[in-house]
Patatin (Amycolatopsis antarctica), 790 residues
Amino acid sequence: MKLEAETVAADADPRTRVRELGLDDPARYTGTLDAESLRWTPAEAENRAHSDHVRYTEYAGRSCDLTMRGGTTSGVIYPLAVCSLAEHYVFRSIGGASAGAIAAAATAAAEYGRLAETPGRTEPGTEAPGQTEQPPEPAAPRRSGEADDSVRPGFAGLAQLVDWLVSGTGDGRWRLAQLFQPSENLHRVYRLATALMQKPATTGRNTYLAVLAALLMAVTAPARAALVVLFAVWFAGPLGVHLALPPQRWNEVPWPIAVILAALALTAAGWVTRLAVSRLRRAGLAPALPLLPWLAGLLIWAGSAATAGTVPAWLVAVSAGLFSWLLLTFAALAAYAAIYGKACWPVLADAERFGFGLVPGAAPYVPSRVDRLAGMPASTGVPPLAVWLADRIDDLAGTAPGPDRRALTFGDLWLGPDVARDGENAGERLRRAAADSAERVINLALMTTDLSGGRPYRLPFEGTEEDDSRWQFCHRCLDGVLPARVVTQLCEAGTAATPCPRHPDTTLHWMPGPWDVPVILGARMSLSLPGLIQAVPLCRKGKLHWFSDGGITSNFPIHFFDTLLPRWPTFGLNLDRLDSDVPPEQEVHIAPQDSTVVAEPWSPTGAGIAAFGSRIIGTFLGWRDTMQSALPGFRGRIASVRQGLGEGGTNLFMTPESIARLALRGHKAGETLKQRFSVAGTGGESPGLTQTDRYRWIRMRIAIREFRELARQAQFRSPLYQDRTSTYLIPRELSGWFAEDDGVWPKREPYEEQINEAFTGLGDLANVQLAQPFDGTSPVNPVFRLTPPE
């Protein structure tokens, strides 16, 4: 089977190739829901597993889960991969972290929109909020270059998001960069960050000139005047020393001293120049600019008949010029550091006031003329990131637009569009879904990091509106962090009668129950890239907690949704990097599902201390995800999309052509996964079998090995535990473990008989069915252990 992405001419404009895939056609995705049973929740399907085996098997074969790694380009690469998978699969659970949360939230909303647009079991009067008996008229296909950023509901709209990113012209070419709009207080710092991203080959601006403009305009007018004076003194200093101390002043200096001084000066100047050039390349020659007028002065002086001087005198004069240049250069650097340190100190010392980031997310900012000199594109009407993302999530879900538009919530996803939020038994269903993810039509899980608590959290938070320990928020703290309509919707949960730690005159509000939490809040809390996007402040019991990027604790949560015996594969979309251009045959990598040993990950550490430190941080943050991704039953369902030089990273100024190329690689990743797991006979499988069958066989054998280990532990250690059921008296301190408290403490184990029977049954397994280890088990033995919930 030939991948569809390869059917278009490889030398065509990548933007044209994206459009010719036709992924913005809603008809491509409706056939996935051609059976009523595919609209079941996983719990509904499992209740029919034995009574309706055929439909349950079909349900499992057309279902998948999906997790996505964080990365700047994830919002560009993943959408078309998701669209490709959506042509065959229904997404049951979707997870992501960091920037991967954007694609995860968009995928969940698109699945909701597809269910809403595809005829199902909806009865009149039971439509979900924002839905009518007839779905709203979808947005018409957008023409190339059109400014409107609204999209269709469902996965066709997800494909349109990519088209929007690659369709701009002029300043609209940089729509990705335009989404990141700094706060009014920190736009000067952000201006410098933007200047560092400029490249003549892409934006047409020289990086060093853009950085110079950003630095010069980052300080006050008196500081700029001081910088100009410092530059003038530094630039003219060596020439001034030459004029003040001409060579004939040194005629009496002995030869040895003159030679030693010259050797020292030339060695020091050469070392500094080599160091600067090795680090800054051609720009490293800039510190030598003051030597040009100095050399000109020396030549003029040497050509004058009135300037007699001995050779030692000239050696001393050259030494004096070089030493003055070195001294003035280091003095100027120290003065510049002092000036900019003073300018930056208020920001560094009081970073909490600015939310520990440059970009609030929902506060608009219009670049000034000076900003544009530093590389920030002119405004073309693109809204801030969180506003744009909230609107696109609601577009994809198909909620009705307008001034009173409701943000899509996790509860909407759990119930699906077939059940109205205010319908009969909706509250009971939501509580069941909150307790058991199998009761959810669409399960979205996003990772965030509580820096104040030093732990990760999986969003939405657990708990109910009756829980007094649930989270609180201050609407003033969220001003500019989330769209105003979303903050207003959150405030409907009521006030908590507790003052905000940051705004003592403002009362905190309760965070709504998990089913009423807007999806955009979860995405915003997960993508708070440290230093760039502001962290999100919430409170609990009156204490302030700062929530930052989910990638700090798990940038690739491939463990989401995994169980010992999974129902269906959890696909992973990963980002990888090559230190070169990416050849077509290496654009996507998926490890085989076989017994071979996976090559250990390796990348060059680099020669500098900065590269070494970067590797330390990367290993510290990602080692667990890296190791888990290589396990049997994991590695064969992860597609790694590779990026080359100049692609991804912190580069927000990728050209539309580069974005389109990355999107096409994402589509290839989706096609490869879909082919591997849905097409019979691929990868060495027997006719009629797919690699989904191989995946289940691998997981079954791993599970049997764990069952055997548990049975053996129960067999040999039962004397240590089984006797506790009759001899141990449970103290009152453990009463919280029991749903019912009869007030009688201490008490004997109430389930003594059932526990003893379980130990006996496990012992029988160890003695009979699992007495000997099975041959044919994976050579890698994963370690299963109890882990705390996120």
